Amino acid sequence: MDQARTTISKIFNGEPLSYTRFNLTQNMEGDNSHVEMKLSSDVDDEVDANGVGENRNQHNRPYYPSKLNKHSPKTICRFVIGILFLFIIGYLIGYLSNRNTDKTEVKSNCPVFNEIAPVRAEAVYSLDWSDLRALLKQKLTIANIDTSLKEFSSASHQAGSTGDEALANKIMGKFKTFGMSTWTDEHYVKVHEPGSSNNRVLFRGNVVGKTEGYLAYSAVKTAQGAALYAHYGRAEDFRRLQELNIDVTGKVVLVRAGLLSFAEKVANAASLNASAVLIYPDPFNYNIKEDTALFGHVHLGTGDPYTPGFPSFNHTQFPPAQSSGLPSIPAQTITIKQATEIMSKLGGRTSPLGWSDGNLRVSMYKLGGDGDNITVEVNNVLIQKKIHNVFGVIKGYMDADRYIVIGAQRDAWGPGYARSTVGTSLLVELARTITDMIKNDGFKPKRSIIFASWSAGEFGSVGATEWLEGYLNSLNLKMFSYISLDEVISGSDSFKASASPLLYELLERTMKQVSSPIDATKSLHEQFAGSNWEQSVMEHMGLSHSSYPFQTFSGIPSISFRFTSSSKSYPFGTTEDTDQYLQRFTSSKTLQLAKTAGEVVGLVTLRLVHDHLLKLNMVKYTSVIRNYVSQIKTKVESCQTSGRLPSTVTMQWLLSAQGSYDRAASALASVIQNSDLDDMEQCRIINNRIMRVEGNLLSPYVSLRESLFRHILLGSGSHTLAALVDHLEAIKGGLENADIDQFKNQLALATWTIQGCANALAGEVWDMDNEI
């Protein structure tokens, strides 16, 4: 049929009277397999708009070949009959070849008359935002959350155990019931477990109580030395000891649990050559039994420490390796009872002001004397376990290849009710709620939502990090946000969050749209934020946050938040983490808090998959960068004034990079304000620029095996701007670790990382004009 039409058109006009226009529409699965073909001759305006079709009238005028005038009527009649014969044959061929084909489908080898007009993607219309908010609040019910909490509560579900696998299968079954596409991710990881010989702590030659808890990834050895009390084991605590001329070398350091991770406490002590570390829960911080044991890990990193920077799909294919974050000294937890026995007998100097605020039954917190010898014996064994991450996906209707991930830790040491059961239950209920909104209420998310259940989270986000390492190249390009549900409830009188600055504005707006679980007449923002919401709510994202590897290793904007207590620490990593204890800790508001937490996660997620443009505010990073640059500039000038730093070290290029980012972010914000949000292709281009900001703040100049957390603003290592500030302090003080050449190298690489991020944010290379 098409050939016949083309032939006739050429005979009479030399050109076809119409052309094919393909209008791409997406099916319910999010692909472009169906195409709508529209043949039209009244599209000349569109052609003219693209600068084509200037001789349109000439093409449309009848054209009579001169040869026809030279022949007789009989010849003309034969000629017309021949044309009709060709037309009938062409029609029959077209009819027979297309009678079993859907009229709306066009085969990929179908001939095209002319150049296909540029296709403009069409928007998928979904519910209004107010409707989505109401539906989420209506469908995410306390009754369903309560049912899930009971269903996923487990007494034993340690990573790689049969209990862990049973929960994984149960979650997988739920996802399938909701109609989601599911899959699993399998890894072989190495973890520590107590050995046949128990870990022991001896004080002055005598065994101190029973030691049931342990710290995974501690050095397996026996160490001894004089006892030294070091408060919480923070860097500032050890600096205070140095100011008192107390040498940490060879000492067994006693520190309280809390304020920072176990791994950071041990790393701080090891950096000063301590021989071992003991960590205990002080009654001032914890309301637990005297003989309750603590569990945790001391790997200064995340993931399997024996496959640093690469996935643990199979250890046998890699040469022996281990993370630089593994401690070289033994570390062990002790109970309140054991700590009391040791601290009550310590001699030596009185501890500094503020260090004796604990509630151990001792007369005074002493620092310890030379005769207070402690022996720490760690006999943990390293074993390999197979773990499974479980996934379910709701595919988007427009940009299915762009997705947000909501994740929750599934395993726990002990009951782990607040650690993992609450997060897992909310994960399943959010999946149920959103799939229900799609099936029954007409919600069509533009982008995809992945629900992830992680294993081996107790050992430092092992399952999540191994997944990131295994699929880093694709995740960097397609995953635009991560939301953690871990430890989302551990109290009721405070609300804290850690997030990428890109998500600050979205979180603040969400808090204003969700009712407080304490007072329904107030919003979360009114209840917990106060006049300065960032100061009241936001806190630094560190190793203890499960979203940390997503943010600082993969460059994916991430967020985690929690309802917590402002007075006491919740006993994570103990056998007291049960539903009864959490109820007491939340004043019997666990279900109300869970529903509120679900609404926060749900609204943030829906906002990110509903709007044409991603709600990620890249302008927020301007103030973060400016703050660091200001600190560095002040310290550089101070060091140059004192003669510690040569005048050749200039701030010009770092200031220039800061200005470049500021201008690029402001320019893109202006583009967004003036954009046509119905232009889906334009929105996609803008979204691609926005979602790469975080990834472009990862330093490309450091090794993943040596510095896993490459983010120069939120990560850790010598490549960060915080490290530059610290290095300038060392230079100013004339310390041994000060190295001017190394500082200049760090400054140059950090500068170009910021400049590179600004260049990528500015747009395409042909839009830039770097004047010579």
CATH superfamily of the largest domain: Zn peptidases
Low-confidence stretches: 3-70, 100-121
What's the CATH class of the largest domain, please?
Answer: Alpha Beta
Broad structural category: alpha/beta
Radius of gyration: 33 Å
Shape, per Cα inertia axes: globular
- The number of E-state strands comes to 19
CATH architecture of the largest domain: 3-Layer(aba) Sandwich
Number of domains: 4
Q: Could you tell me how far the N terminus lies from the C terminus, measured between alpha carbons in angstroms? A: 59 Å
**How many helices?**
25
The profile of the biggest β sheet is: 8 strands, mixed
CATH topology of the largest domain: Aminopeptidase
Which band does the percent of strand residues land in?
15-25%
Q: Determine the fraction of residues in helical runs and give it as a percent range.
A: 25-40%
Mean pLDDT: 85
Description:
Helices cover 39% and strands 15% of the residues. It is globular and about 130 Å long. Strand 7 (222-229), helix 8 and strand 8 form a beta-alpha-beta unit. Helix 24 (721-733) packs antiparallel against helix 25. The chain has four domains: 2-98, no CATH class; 129-192 and 383-610, Aminopeptidase; 195-379, Glucose Oxidase, domain 1; 620-767, Transferrin receptor-like, dimerisation domain (Transcription Elongation Factor S-II, Chain A, Up-down Bundle), CATH 1.20.930.40. The model is unreliable at 3-70 and 100-121 (pLDDT under 50). By secondary structure, it is α/β, with parallel strands linked by helices.
